[in-house]
Write a structure and sequence with these properties.
With 427 residues, this protein is of the alpha+beta class. The chain is built from 13 helices and 22 strands. The longest helix is centred in the middle third of the chain and has 21 residues.
């Protein structure tokens, strides 16, 4: 197929790499220097829906695969559908599962999907009243998309008041922070499960775990993700129950409400004393989980994506044996004030995509750009180094060995990715 991938991160690079293995003709908008090794990149803005549709039409693509959440929330799939172009991703209405925390929580309540008790607050006073009712710690979330910065776990009134004020009075996130969801804090261990859906059926990926905090030991500020591993230690019975009690009711509920969900449903979970509870939905592949999942996928995802777009998911997902671990390299100052412009040394010696595949170690680009004959960091998370090996320990060691071959002055990376994995959860 001729496929256009929308996005420019390591997630999109991993998807492009996986699709390239099966001979698809790939384009990317806008892509990055890593993606251009396996696809033709085109200048594009992710918020330019009309421009993305025009590009897809000009390229005469068979399928558009949308990576980030922002164009989905803007309705790019609706516009592609109207133009007669098949797209993998949910419509704007279905994307509310991610673009509105209030919608998602109220949807879960309507359909009996297990999650934390919550209240919706439109003022600082309402938010504090809800926080006091749930006790400390509690969780406050901006309603809309906030680039991963719209959530705080408040340990006391000072933190809750500061976050609520920043959202509701200072309008730090604009309209996205005009309402807050205040939730009871759920203890336990986090996990992620991804599901393909055609609006009726689902197919489950291997479970993954990401590491959100900046520093070793899960300390420091939240980030977009500093690393991941797959498969995560969730037993098969628990995964099957999550599919039956969360994923399938979600897809059925969206269809019942007139917004069939076609695309990738990401279920973020807390596994605690009360069982599995949904922390959040995303409506696209997660990052950095995608980077560690793609090397485990044995078949052609392009066919699965096309089946979802047609509403006819038939092929089962198949996976290789082994484990993969991924470590993110970030710029100095990330996440609060990432400093771009640093030169990346060592990438010029990194193997070709074919050699990467043979060695089962990959370098997926995110925040990189070309500056003459050099590659420089363009801000935030820069690269994800991923290795697949027979054991998780071997995968972890190989990923860090790959990371040590790359230098970025002031760059940040956690040293404990995949070292904290425990035994299988569930039963």
């Amino acid at each position: 197929m001729r496929i256009l991938i929308v996005g420019s991160g390591a997630r999109e690079h991993a998807l492009a790499w996986q699709l390239s293995r099966f001979g698809h003709q790939l384009h990317a908008a806008p892509g990055n220097p890593g993606i251009e090794r396996v696809a033709r990149c085109h200048d594009a803005r992710l918020d330019d829906v009309a421009g993305l549709v025009a590009l897809a039409r000009a390229l005469a693509v068979d399928l558009v695969v949308v990576g980030p959440e922002a164009p989905l929330a803007l309705g790019v799939v609706d516009a592609l559908d109207a133009a007669g172009i098949a797209a993998f991703g949910p419509t704007r209405t279905a994307a509310r599962l991610e673009s509105s925390k209030v919608f998602a929580k109220e949807f879960m309540a309507r359909h009996g999907i297990p999650s934390a008790p919550f209240r919706v607050a439109g003022s600082v006073e309402d938010a504090l009243a809800a926080a006091h009712a749930f006790g400390w710690p509690c969780v406050l979330k901006a309603d809309g998309l906030a680039a991963g910065k719209g959530v705080v776990v408040a340990r006391g009134e000072f933190e809750a008041r500061a976050f609520a004020g920043a959202c509701l009075r200072e309008r730090r996130f604009g309209d996205a922070g005009a309402r807050l969801v205040v939730e009871e804090f759920l203890p336990g261990e986090e996990a992620s499960l991804f599901f393909l859906s055609d609006g009726e059926r689902v197919a489950r990926f291997e479970p993954a775990r990401d590491y959100k905090r900046l520093l070793d030991g899960d300390l420091g500020p939240n980030t977009g993700g500093m690393g991941a591993l797959a498969p995560a230690p969730l037993d098969a019975g628990l995964c099957a129950r999550i599919e039956a009690e969360v994923a399938r009711p979600t897809i059925a509920g969206m269809a019942q409400e007139g917004a069939p969900f076609r695309g990738l449903l990401y279920v973020g979970l807390m596994l605690g004393p009360a069982g599995a509870r949904v922390l959040e939905y995303n409506v696209r592949f997660g990052d950095p989980e995608t980077q560690v999942l793609m090397p485990l996928v044995a078949g052609d995802l392009g066919e699965h994506f096309a089946e979802c777009a047609r509403g006819a998911l038939r092929s089962p997902l198949e996976f290789t044996d082994g484990f993969s671990a991924g470590v993110v390299l970030a710029t100095p100052g990330y996440p609060e004030a990432p400093r771009a412009g640093g030169v990346l040394a060592g990438l010029e010696r990194w193997p070709s995509p074919e050699e990467e595949d043979a060695n089962a170690t990959w370098c997926f680009h995110a925040g990189t750009r070309r500056d003459d004959d050099r590659l420089v960091a363009s801000g935030g998370r820069v690269l994800t180094i991923v290795a697949r090996r027979p054991t998780l320990g071997e995968a972890r060691r190989a990923a860090y060995e790959g990371l040590r071959s790359i230098a970025l002055v002031g760059g940040q990376a956690r040293g404990d990715i995949a070292a904290l994995a425990q035994g299988a959860v569930g039963g």
